[in-house]
Hints:
- By secondary structure, the protein is mainly α.
- It contains two helices and no strands.
- The chain has helices spanning 20-23, 31-92.
- The longest helix is centred in the middle third of the chain and has 62 residues, at 31-92.
- The radius of gyration is 41 Å and the shape is rod-shaped.
Amino acid sequence: xxxxFEPSHSTSRQxxxxxxxxxxxxxxFGFDDLRDRMAKFTAKxxxxxxxxxxxxxxxxxxxxxxxxxxxxxxxxxxxxxxQQQHRDNSLTSRP
Length: 95
């Protein structure tokens, strides 16, 4: 048995006159202004985040360069006694 949809009588009525929504005054809620302000904020916020990322990246790279430089100096200073001892041994072993 196939059933056929029949709309109820309440949905098939024709409007008798202007609806209540048509009689209400138009109100400007300022959504366009809000949308513009939100877009400006988003642009500023994105720029702020991008600058922060760049700054953190630059600071991290500078830190890594400083650490590498300090490690190089540490290796140099660590090897100085060996180099000095090797030099002294080579000088004393000469006839």
